[in-house]
Design a protein that fits this description.
Helix content: 10-25%
Shape: globular
Largest sheet: 6 strands, antiparallel
Strand content: 15-25%
Number of helices: 6
Radius of gyration: 20 Å
Length: about 325
């Protein structure tokens, strides 16, 4: 049983290695992953994705200012380098929708579980969110709750950000300021602080009448990283060399980001137009089938260790 206990200890040690602090993300650094400090060990958290309304008849999309195609898939690396942030044009087109069209940009805070779906984490310690951005129209900063979204009819807690057409604006929002939209009349209510305890994703959503709207997400950080004097300025970001060193230490070549799926409900928070992990972190020739085999092996290995532990005297 000594061998089984050693294996179990190794698994818990790996999990502990990914616990940490949400590091402020700055597009100026050219890094495409947000280090949330809550990764579950799958190393799939923090990668930017986009989603839109086409699952329910909308025709909206994000038009990127740089080519997102790579030899191994797609990546936002070129966009972040070009914009010094996550920027693009939200081309909103209602199609056959019965509500205003939308697109959104977001990232998962914990990463995907063994079933491939993003998991929830407790982000209470962040205190809220701090974001620097520009947008031609007033966007929403929304708290994605995974499968729980359907329970609350996609009336997720949200904070309505002001329009910022030219000069980047920074807003610090405590969890208490995130509230469900006024149109929601369902029985299941959830506050911002309660949503933070089971947070799956952070989302920047643009919803309006048909049109083209520019946006750029320049920085994002926990509320606790905003200037305590009230200037809303995000505190100094760690330098790029330390970021690269951190990534080299804990990131491996063979990882893939989850591929979200559309759902098609009004205000739907499911994801599509997903982006693969940055090309420089992916091993050439490694295909999804091999990754699935690797993930399945991990799952079986964990189950085997768990069985050994149960059998131990």
């Amino acid at each position: 049983m000594k061998h089984a206990i050693t294996l179990a200890t190794a698994i818990f040690a790996v999990s502990a290695a990914y616990a940490g602090t949400f590091q402020p993300w700055d597009g100026e650094e050219g890094i495409s992953q947000v280090n949330t400090g809550l990764d579950n060990g799958s190393e799939t958290s923090g990668y930017w994705f986009s989603y839109a309304d086409d699952g329910d008849g909308g025709e909206s999309k994000v038009t990127w200012p740089a080519d997102t195609r790579t030899e191994t898939g797609t990546s936002l690396d070129s966009v972040i380098t070009h914009c010094k942030g996550v920027c693009g044009v939200a081309s909103l087109s209602k199609g056959t929708l019965k509500y205003n069209p939308f697109v959104g940009i977001g990232f998962n805070i914990v990463g995907e579980g063994l079933d491939g779906d993003p998991e929830a984490g407790d982000a209470t310690d962040w205190g809220g969110l701090c974001i620097t951005y520009t947008s031609d129209i007033a966007p929403d900063l929304e708290l994605g709750l995974g499968a729980f979204d359907a329970t609350i009819e996609y009336a997720n807690p949200v904070f309505k950000l002001p329009k910022a057409t030219s000069t980047p604006v920074t807003k610090a929002i405590p969890w208490s300021k995130f509230t469900q939209p006024s149109w929601y009349t369902g029985a299941t209510k959830i506050s911002g602080p309660d949503a933070a305890k089971q947070l799956v994703a952070v989302k920047f959503k643009i919803q309006a009448v048909n049109g083209d709207y520019n946006f750029n997400i320049k920085k994002i950080a926990p509320f606790t990283a905003c200037d305590p004097e009230g200037s809303n300025a995000i505190k100094g970001i760690r330098n790029a060399s330390s970021v690269q060193l951190y990534r080299n230490q804990i990131r491996s070549d063979s990882r893939y980001r989850q591929h979200p799926r559309p759902n098609g409900r009004q205000g739907d928070n499911r994801y599509h137009n997903s982006f693969a992990r940055p090309s420089f972190t992916r091993r050439r020739g490694l295909h999804d089938s091999r990754q699935r085999e690797k993930r399945q092996f991990r799952k079986e290995d964990y189950i085997e260790v768990k069985q050994y532990m149960i059998a131990a005297p």
